[in-house]
Amino acid sequence: MDTIRPLRILWRDDHLVVADKPAGLAVHRGWAPERDVAMTRVRDAIGAHVFPVHRLDRGTSGVLVFALSADVASAFGQLFGTAAVEKTYLALVRSVPAEDGIIDHPLPPGEDRNEPRVPAQTAFTRLEVFGRYSLVEARPATGRLHQIRRHLKHIGCPIIGDVRYGKGVHNRFFREQLDLHRMFLHALRIRFPHPVTAATIDIEAALPPELEGALERLRKAVAEGTLQPP
User: Fold this and answer.
1) Considering just the CA atoms, what is the radius of gyration of the chain in Å?
2) pLDDT tens for residues 75-127?
3) Would the N or C end of the chain have less CB density within 10 A of its end CB?
4) Hey, how many other C-beta atoms are within 10 angstroms of the C-beta on 81?
5) Using CB atoms within 10 A of its CB, is residue 149 exposed (0-12), middle (13-18) or buried (19+)?
6) What confidence category does residue 229 fall into, taking pLDDT thresholds of 50, 70 and 90?
7) Whole-angstrom distance, CA of residue 88 vs CA of residue 94
8) Helix 168-178 / helix 209-224 crossing angle, nearest 10 deg
């Protein structure tokens, strides 16, 4: 991806701000050497310092929450990773999984694969099938590093465009034939009780144009019978 599309503010109040993070942008400088990160873009957009309360991988787009104070960040952090926070992702994967299910597969909590594994669960629903590829909705119940990517690989359905857990031959096919130059993983929606007001906050970020365009090209190729995957 040569350029990173603009970040959009989806919602804010006196305590929280929710942004639509583009793919290719790290959340903050602790996870990236460059100065252009989501945290500074949000800060500049609203004119106030912000505190990250969860993360999205650099290659993942979609809803991202920041707090406007350390106290609210701490309160939200205690909610995150519990059933109180509902997260919904869309992923395009190789293979065709069951119509729905729960992946219950412990994972190392961080980058070190030798760390003791901890419980991790992701529910999924198959939304659409394109020959040997599928669009799935993933709903992680826990918040382990790369959880959705690791879990979908675990059931034989790696995400298209994922250079770490995916399959190079399929990633190249989508780049060359369907003009998809990023990982197809998007944080579509987040729903949570506000840590200060207790109101239910429900925010959604539409699929970005590069993912919507790839889906349309994929649907057209399937309808015309011209899809010839490796």
Assistant:
1) 18
2) 998 888 788 999 999 999 999 999 999 999 999 987 767 788 999 999 999 99
3) C
4) 15
5) buried
6) very high
7) 19
8) 90
What residue has token string 């020959």? 131
């959880």: which residue's tokens?
147
- Cβ 134 vs Cβ 126: under 8 Å: yes
Instruction: Provide the annotated active-site residues.
Output: 57
Positive or negative torsion for Cα 146, 143, 90, 15? negative
φ, ψ of residue 71 to 5 degrees: the values are -65, -45
Per the structure block, which two tokens stand in for 31? 């996870």
- The DSSP line for the chain is --SPPPPEEEEE-SSEEEEEEPTT--SSGGG-SSS--HHHHHHHHHTS--EE-S---TT-EEEEEEESSHHHHHHHHHHTTSTTSEEEEEEEEES---SEEEEE--B-SSS-TTSPPB--EEEEEEEEEETTEEEEEEEESS--TTHHHHHHHHTT-PBTT-TTTS-HHHHHHHHHHH---S--EEEEEEEEE-TTT--EEEEE-PPPHHHHHHHHHHHHHHHHT-----
Could you tell me if 99 and 125 are in contact, meaning their C-beta atoms sit under 8 angstroms apart? Answer: yes
